[in-house]
Design brief:
Elements: E1 4-9, H1 15-25, E2 29-35, H2 39-48, H3 57-62, E3 67-70, H4 77-86, E4 90-94, H5 101-114, E5 118-121, H6 128-138, E6 145-155, H7 164-167, H8 171-187, E7 191-199, E8 212-219, E9 224-233, E10 244-249, E11 253-257, E12 262-267, E13 272-277, H9 282-296, H10 304-323, E14 327-328
Helix pairs in contact: 1-9, 4-5, 5-10, 6-8, 8-10
């Protein structure tokens, strides 16, 4: 594969750090530049990841980069995607694709009009345990899936994540989209109905967005799904959070602990216990897939449409919480 030059647009989202490191690991790719609307942050990141910072967005997009990874605040995704698409760049956009359904659709339309690929950053599809579970389910080893219980818990990220105007929502917005995408991909079915109750019992008045969401959903075929999304992990927790899935079938039960490839590390110098991942890196899998798509000028595996579907379910969850009744997706 030829050298594929990729740029990163914004380090507002912490996942940008992992994506940049992944690009630097790939012999077929080059992290060719960083643009950020926070110049100091952009300059610091360019130095850290051994690349150049470009202060002008127009100059950045006029360069010879072939694709971009967008890791801005959620409310800025649409404008950045539309500008990158108009410049003819392949795009991988951080999740959620947008906190608004109409904006997500506009982003897809802009990329189709420009003839560029649009991907959504859902790295959970590249976790080996989830990939193996998908194969087991599709092979019929647990029979017909009847119900699924899911969690996606994490730490309160603070900053713009807790500002609804920038994020579009709290823990439910932040964490539901991952689980929705994984289940759609594993089962090849769509979500039909959603009921949700939200709260911020964990942080109280110090947090203006939800830090806890309890969802009950229904997929095609009547599959019942329960999901807990939260920012419930303390700052001292060994890792950022979890993704767990329990599939209940007519012939058996299958459990997935998606981030269980980890070592317990006790750091006496800093008096901290940490879980350090070993082996597989789903972010590297996601970035590798995007680089391949850019090189071949084809759609990434996880498409903009996949991002739209996840946004539709999550937006419906907030509508259900406000209406206090189950709503259709």
């Amino acid at each position: 594969m030829k050298d594929v030059r990729i740029g990163i647009m914004s380090f507002a989202h912490m996942h940008a750090f992992s994506y940049a490191a992944s690009l630097n690991q790939l012999p077929e790719a080059t992290l060719a530049g960083i643009w950020d609307d926070d110049p100091k942050r952009g300059q610091d990141m360019a130095k850290q990841f051994n690349t150049q910072f470009v202060a002008s967005l127009d100059d950045f997009l006029a360069s010879d980069i072939a694709g971009v990874i967008i890791c801005s605040e959620n409310n800025k995704h649409r404008a950045l995607v539309e500008k990158a698409a108009a410049a003819g760049k392949w795009i991988l956009c951080e999740k959620p694709l947008s906190p608004k359904v109409e904006d997500a659709q506009a982003m897809i339309d802009a990329c189709k009009k420009a003839g560029v690929g649009l991907g959504t950053a859902f790295p959970c599809r590249f976790i080996p345990s989830i990939m193996a579970a998908r194969e087991q389910i599709r092979a019929g080893h647990i029979g017909e899936v009847l119900a699924i219980a899911c969690t996606n818990h994490g730490q309160n990220p603070g900053g713009w994540f807790v500002e609804e105007a920038e994020s579009g929502g709290g823990a439910t917005m932040d964490h539901t989209v991952h689980v929705v995408d994984v289940l759609r991909w594993m089962l090849d079915r769509e979500f039909k109905k959603v009921y949700c109750e939200l709260g911020n019992q964990l942080h109280g008045e110090s947090l203006k967005t939800d830090d806890l969401g309890s969802l009950n959903m229904e997929m095609d075929g009547g599959i019942q799904v329960s999901h807990l999304a939260s920012w419930s992990r303390p700052q001292s927790f060994p890792t950022w959070g979890d993704v767990t899935l329990e599939f209940i079938g007519t012939e058996g039960v299958l459990n997935v602990d998606a981030f269980n490839q980890k070592l317990d590390v006790f750091d006496d110098a800093n008096m901290r216990h940490a879980w350090v991942g070993w082996g597989d890196n789903p972010d590297l899998g996601l970035v590798t897939d995007f680089v391949r798509a850019v090189a071949k000028r084809e759609a990434p595996s996880v498409t903009g449409e996949d991002g739209l579907r996840a946004t539709e379910v999550t937006v419906a969850a907030y509508k259900a919480a406000n209406a206090k009744e189950m709503v259709s997706v």
